[in-house]
Design brief:
The protein contains 18 helices and 18 strands. By secondary structure, the protein is of the alpha/beta class. The protein folds into two domains: 310 residues, 3-Layer(aba) Sandwich (Aminopeptidase), CATH 3.40.630; 194 residues, Alpha-Beta Plaits (2-Layer Sandwich). It is elongated, with a radius of gyration of 27 Å. InterPro entries: Peptidase_M20A, Peptidase_M28, Uncharacterised_RocB.
């Protein structure tokens, strides 16, 4: 009874929803585009907000930052810790505070981080009735990062504040973590793993769950359901190096145009539902092409020798190495069709001119990088050459380094044959999910039992949750690394730390629309009013 009275008194004196809204707007107004010094500004802003909380005013050392190693911008992660004596059980609240850029706002870009101004502008937005209605309702906060994911940051701050103010409800330890550099390479969470491990070892913590507040959205117009996720999809950047047979346009039937090969492979792989894992009821997304580019630097009448392409490929349960093997099989079959067609067309051309038939031995060899490496080891000191290449390109683009390495190796010891080499480039996001007989899952069912909540296994977007646990075996990861050129140089991941931590990951996200667009907005009644209490209920169950 006393606890309930104190809680009611707290709520009457302190409007939590208004606090979260104010905090979210303050964070949105601090511009923190990925790859800029704004990420540092936002980290400092979060520290400032946390240290306004009376508990952290008295315990200033319980809020701290950790800089990313060797980061030219000095970007850093933010931590805050509420310790409960006599227990090891610890719940982790985590979120990221970097955002994508603001150029998509166009003429509204100067107001991209001013929610109140944007709301007024959108009240007369004739191009989209839904946006206009939301602005007129007053129930939505607009602005870059309002949804992805500064409202999630604000909810986590509010909840650690709540437990700091209600120590009688603090039945376990609570760790807040705000991460930089999520929107491209996830370097913030990767660097933070060492700190999570240090706290685990030094404080004797048992991480029972990691709660990410990354956003959720309606799946179709009018969808009011709230989606709760108990796993994180993974990702590989599937790269396809295409080398054709270069020829003069006057001898076009003698060559194999790398752009034609790449185009056929793009049609084969992009959005192909036959090449995805199957889980009824889950949002399982196919591979999609993010880049396709021939490597001609200037105009001439030679066909393009090489074309580079890469695909976003989500992973769910299958290991990355197995997915790459399946792509290789499909590509080999497609290449046989391509060369067969090329030979038939050339034969018809020669026959039409009355020329004699000749031998046409054109073929396209298909390798994974591991297979290609074995072949090249017979021609050179392969490992030494790769190391030398890496040392000479310390500032290279992580996405293109593998292509550049293959170009280099082909120049050194290539056989001149048409070929395709499949490999992986950064970022690699491991997949993970909690089992349905686990405590974390049962607690979700107990907390989000109302009909408007739908539990799903895989968060359908890329997420920092990928890095706090790994489901793939050591053997599967080693096989994957064999197809990841320069992995130790470009994107070394602390797999053993991830496996040691193995924190069950859930996403209890704020609700909104238009993430990564200029219409980005978060719905206040749920995100600031209902969700925080739900998270606290779940937190308490995970302390038991």
């Amino acid at each position: 009874m006393i606890r309930q009275e104190r809680k009611l008194m707290f709520m009457s004196e302190f409007d939590e929803a208004k606090y979260i809204e104010k905090t979210a707007i303050e964070l949105v107004e601090t511009k923190s585009v990925n790859g800029t010094s704004g990420e540092v500004d936002e980290a400092e802003k979060i520290v400032e907000i946390l240290r306004r909380i009376p508990y952290f005013q008295k315990h200033r050392d319980a809020v701290w930052t950790k800089e990313l190693p060797n980061d030219p911008l000095g970007r850093k992660n933010v931590f805050a810790f509420l310790k409960k004596k006599g227990t090891q059980k610890t719940v982790l609240y985590h979120s990221h505070f970097d955002t994508v850029g603001t150029k998509d706002f166009g003429p509204l870009e100067s107001d991209a981080t001013h929610p109140d101004v944007l709301a007024e502008r959108f009240k007369s937005f004739e191009e989209d009735e839904d946006v206009r209605n939301d602005a007129e309702s007053g129930d939505w906060v607009f602005g870059r990062g309002a949804l992805d994911m500064k409202s999630g940051d604000a909810v986590n701050i509010a909840n650690i504040r709540y437990f700091a103010e209600h120590q009688d409800e603090l039945e376990g330890n609570l760790l807040f973590m705000g991460n930089c550099v999520e929107e491209n390479d996830h370097l913030g969470i990767i660097a933070a793993l060492d700190e999570l491990e240090r706290l685990k070892d030094e404080e004797g913590l048992e991480y029972t769950v990691a709660i990410n507040t990354d956003f959720i959205s309606p799946k179709y117009p009018g969808d009011g359901q709230k989606y709760i996720y108990y796993g994180a999809a993974g990702k590989i950047l599937t790269c396809v190096y295409v080398r054709g047979i270069e020829t003069h346009v006057g001898n076009t039937y003698d060559g194999l145009n790398s752009t034609v090969i790449a185009s056929r492979l793009n049609c084969l792989l992009d959005n192909n539902p036959d090449l995805v894992e199957k889980f009824p009821g889950e949002e399982i997304l196919p591979s999609t092409c993010l880049m396709i580019r021939d490597q001609k630097d200037f105009y001439n009448v030679q066909t393009p020798k090489t074309t580079h392409m890469y695909f976003n490929t989500f992973t769910y349960q299958k290991p990355a190495c197995e997915l790459l093997d399946s792509f290789e099989k499909e590509i080999k079959a497609e290449c046989l069709k391509m060369t067969g067609l090329a030979k038939r067309r050339r034969s018809a051309y020669l026959s039409g001119l009355g020329f004699p038939k000749d031998k046409d031995d054109r073929a396209i060899d298909v390798y994974t990088f591991a297979e290609y490496a074995e072949m090249m080891k017979k021609r050179m000191d392969f490992e030494a050459e790769c190391k030398r290449f890496a040392e000479q390109r310390s500032e290279c683009d992580k996405r293109t380094a593998g292509f550049e390495l293959l170009d280099h190796l082909e120049e050194l010891a290539g056989d001149g044959r048409a070929k395709i080499v499949l490999f992986i480039a950064p970022p690699f996001c491991p997949h993970n999910a909690i089992s349905e007989d686990s405590k974390a899952y049962r607690a979700l069912k107990a907390t989000f039992f109302e009909p408007e909540y739908v539990l799903k296994k895989y968060f359908p977007y890329l997420s920092d949750s990928s890095y706090i646990a790994v489901d793939e075996t050591t053997a599967e990861l080693e096989r994957m690394k064999d197809d990841f050129p320069l992995e130790d140089f470009l994107y070394p991941l602390p797999y053993e730390t991830m496996r040691k931590l193995s924190i069950p990951a859930v996403d209890l996200g704020v609700f909104g629309k238009g993430a990564h667009t200029f219409k980005e907005r978060v719905y206040k009644p749920y995100s600031y009013g209902i969700l925080p209490e739900k998270i606290r209920t779940y937190t308490k169950l995970m302390w038991k």
